[in-house]
Amino acid sequence: MFRRLPEIETAAEKVSFTIDGRPAKARAGDSVAAALLANGVTACRNTPVSGAARGPYCMMGVCFDCLVTIDGTGNRQGCQVRVAPGMAVETQNGKREVER
Amino acid sequence: MSAQGSKFDFDIAVVGSGPAGLAAAALAASKGASVVLLDEQTEPGGQIYRAVTETPVRDRKVLGPDYWHGAELLGPLRDSGAVHWPGSTVWSVARPREDGPDGERRIQIGLSRNGAAAMLTVRHVILATGALERPFPIPGWTLPGVLGAGAAQVLLKTSGLVPSGATVMAGSGPLLWLLAWQYLQAGARIDAILDTTPKQNWRAALPLLPGFLRSPYLGKGMKLMLEVRRKLTVIGNVTALRAEGGLAGEGVLKSVVYTRNGTEHRLPADTLLLHQGVVPNLNLANATGCAQRWDEQQRCWRPTTDEWGATSVEGVSLAGDGAGIGGARAAEEAGRLAALDALHRLGRIGREQRDQSAAPFRAALDRALTGRAFLDTLYTPAEAFRVPADDTIVCRCEEITAGAVREAVRLGCSGPNQAKSFLRCGMGPCQGRLCGPTVTEVIAAERGVSPAEVGYYRLRPPVKPITLAELAALPKTDADIDAVFKH
Asked: Hey, what long-range contacts does B257-263 have (CB within 8 A, 24 or more apart)?
């Protein structure tokens, strides 16, 4: 669980996006992975191997544990993509689906 | 392939815009070379100075003066005329099939930018790919809620996020203490720090202490550690750790179990931040064919370089932590030395000018590295956390346990590349970044030989996943098309 430092929370320019269809807010400049954590979403996918839940681990693009579906494209690294207004972020179940 | 002088052709490409890359690009471009600085992130700074141009944490005392030093590297880069391409993921550095039209040696760089692949040609590459956190394989380290301390620091720098709920930090090394100190300044909650530094490391490190007494890190480090120890609960001599999820298979972190003096204790935890040092991020150098060696003191693989950062591959240099861990200040100076040598190799400056210009940078590099051996020795992670028990996952991508790796060794598997074909470990999207050091050490321990003898994964481009559609959309020469259609 993560929270925003209070002075930043109040000053922040907000971005509206969705997590699995639910409306959510982030700070402009947040990565998708940071935006998920700020919204209390610790687990963002299930693994293709065992189905175990995973969440962001490295936040620098090397571990590939924050893979999510962004605007319909699967296997995006949540920590490497900035959240944008209206973005549809979906938690990912197993492998990237064909044509997603 | 692009012609000389085109927008895809440069004298020098620098990969990575942390301290080494920023300093290298600024110096090389200021001497008239055409330089492109490539980086995966959208803003310069690397991980150590991550978001230094735009962090929402404006209170300078939170991140501290060492962080803000990074901003001083940006002016020289802007003034130098180097071309900066942020948001560019380099997936390949290779000698092309043919040299340029003038017969001059070229190096080809494959990168992805804004969802499209592109190829650059350059005469020299400086890889400044930095470091990543050393894997910390404990049971449960794959549970959501368990993150690297470095990852948590990225969240603080980029987004002003700090842990809420029950928070435990565990491990050893300077970054763990720095992050705890930064959290203190920010008013974040830390329930406990579990220090895994082995007691016997002090005995090994003590003879190296005189060197460290002259280190610029000594004063700062002591002050910071004392403040953290005074204000937070620090539990030392932790010899075993595991992260546990809830009942009923609920796969999110609920508690941390640690062993101290032979007794197990349990702490409730919503967030566990792990750290046991950093290792070179060597995937790109390895895939480029640069020779590497096992560093016994830092217990990691590092590409082999000379005093200028030149690797075993002509035209490819390394600067900064990607060539062996030395810290941000050392990386900056190493970047300048690599840039001078590249300018010399390109015929832009003579040997004498290179050597003369290098003198102050080399002196500063030596200063920055003073006392490193003490830190390396004191913070060598305990064997239990480098060579985990059988039930611990070592390869997060393919979910391969240490036990499976040991079983493969008993079946005759002698090194990481064979283990990869036996088990798929290291074959997932992270390409061994999170398991490579562990797999090497587990196999070495099981065989009773040195990690140097066991070796490391032989990596291949692309070093980051790209889609086939991106590759297929690359412009092709007649020779490329012939290579596919002739036979």
From this structure: B258/B170, B258/B194, B260/B235, B260/B236, B261/B237
**Average pLDDT over chain B, rounded to whole?**
94
SS3 B312: coil
Q: Is the interface score ipTM higher than 0.85?
A: yes
Look up residue A74 and give its amino acid.
G
pTM exceeds cut of 0.90: yes
Domain boundaries, chain A: 6-93
How much is the average pLDDT of B57-85? 96
Contact across the interface for B155 and A61, Cβ inside 8 Å: no
**Topology (CATH) of B9-132+279-349:** FAD/NAD(P)-binding domain (3.50.50)
Query: Of 1.10.3720.10, 3.10.290.10, 3.50.50.60, 3.40.50.300, which CATH number belongs to B135-276?
Result: 3.50.50.60
Domain boundaries, chain B: 9-132+279-349, 135-276, 387-454
What are the Cα distances from residue B136, in Å, to B170, B172, B383, B399? Answer: 10, 11, 11, 15
Whether B387-454 and B135-276 are alike in CATH topology: the answer is no
Structural class in CATH, domain A6-93: alpha beta
Give the residue from A85, A87, A84, A53 showing the smallest Cα distance to A67. Answer: A53
| Interchain proximity A4–B465, CB inside 8 Å | no
Under a CB-based contact definition with an 8 Å cutoff, are residues B332 and B309 in contact? no
- pLDDT tens for residues B248-272? 556 899 999 999 999 999 999 999 9
Q: State the Cα–Cα distance between residues B35 and B20, nearest whole angstrom.
A: 14
Name the percent of chain B in helix, strand, coil, to the closest 5. 40, 20, 40
Alpha helices per DSSP H over B120-187: 149-159, 174-186
Residue carrying structure tokens 């797999």: B439
Cβ atoms within 10 Å of B154's Cβ, excluding its own: 24
Count of residues for chain A?
Answer: 100
CB contact under 8 A, B161 and A3: yes
Topology (CATH level 3) of domain B387-454: Arc Repressor Mutant, subunit A (1.10.10)
Answer whether A80 touches B (CB < 8 Å): yes
Contact A58 B161 (CB under 8 A): no
Whether chain B has a CB inside 8 Å of the CB on A96: the answer is no
Of A78, A94, A88, A100, whose CA–CA distance to A20 is shortest? Answer: A88
